[in-house]
Amino acid sequence: MKHMIRVIGAGLIACMLMPVGGVAVAADATLLEQGIAEYRAENFEEALNILETARKEQPASSLVAFYLGMARKQSGDLNGAIKDLNDACTLKPPVLDAFIELADAYHVSGNQEQALAWVAQAEGVLVKPAQVAFLKGQILAASERRGEAIQSFERAKRLDAGLAQAADMQIAINLAGDRKLNRARDALRAVIATDPTSEIASYAKEYEQAFSRIIESYRPLRLTVGLSYLYDDNAISNPSDATARTLIGNPSGQTDHAFVGSLRLDYNPMLSGAGIFSAQYLLHNTQYGNTDTSDENPSTIINSLTLIPGIALGTSALSLPVNYTHVLLKEEKYQQTVTARPTWSLQLAPQHILQAAFSYTRREMLKEPLVGDENRDAHIFGGSAGYIFTYGDQGGMAGLRYDYSYDDAEGVNWINRGHRVSLNGVVPLTPRLKLNLSGDVTLQDYLYANTLFGVRRDDTIWLGSVGLTWNVTPDIALNAQYAHTTAQSNIEVYDYTRNTVTAGVELSF
Prior knowledge:
39% strand; alpha+beta; Serine Threonine Protein Phosphatase 5, Tetratricopeptide repeat; 16 strands; Porin; 16-stranded antiparallel sheet; 509 residues; 2 domains
């Protein structure tokens, strides 16, 4: 009788020590009890040493495997924890708590597919349904499945009111990720209302205030008006060679001044879900002052409309910018283009972005050429690859890009292949003052001998600029820029240099 009481007593102790569903399989109770005591006291290294010995002595014990896996998990050894917790799930009888702990270990290690598989196992054995629903929400959120994640967090709230505050916080984060800021703000207010004095409520207050500022200040429609002065020492890209200038009838070149006016209307709605869309209309007028040689006056009026639909795919995005541009030269129709540019952007890390794109442009010249070989109407095909690095918290940026183009013009003199390499950078000097740097080189290889000059044209064009932008207020910016162009060509009429200086102001509404 006494022996039976001792057996029953040992069984009760084991039941209190073990998690749901486990039964000790003839393990060394002394080592197991010591290991569990050290684990509960958060002496994880001591627990590891004891439980590793217990595991060697009782490799078939699911309970020892469970606690050893938990000790490894707390010590940061996720791979070891996954192995032991997997044993705790598969040995007979399984430790039911191991299902949720194994799913969490896979989640923390970044293997969301396996994490979801073990969550499904935990759901099947009905272990801790509320905690499982909460963990499932975390895994789905990490997999960018925010809608399903929110449903899981709502289920966790229904099953256990004690998880409501943490679940509401997770719901708010996922709503914000889907750009549903009003609903996210409401969820954060629920977090605060549940227990205003808790630590999680203090975080929720900060987020709620930030979301309120974004919502109140967000303007989907923005109008920007700019006015600048331009000095141009070669307004018509006159050749550098005096003989070539005489050949085209302008031996002295053309230094000129211009006023540049622009009007830009940007539309950026805050869409929910993965959809992306923006649109822009631009009116740009460069009015040169030299009217003595009106035939050579390069004043332009440019109208441009761009639509950019797209979709976000986790850390990447696909977009399809479509642009129509119409150009008036000397107040007469000159050119129009339609361009489509499918683009893929991938964020490798918070500061590193890769981009790749293909493009197609249809160009139509709106004046008849003097001869058919000079017809610049064309189908233009292209591709590009680029890398963008952002730094600091004031808008620092550096970018490198390569572009290839094939200009299939109707006139044989304009059929060419182009290779362009460009570097761009933004250097914040102060929170409101930025230095803008850019440079590029373009190699244009014309495929056929020019019928007017008897040689195959080959151009290299260098362009560099440096500028300053001072944001006086969020809606007022002053800017200044110097730019230099050198075009080197084996046909002298296309060989020139050009320097421009601009200074102006932009106002946003």
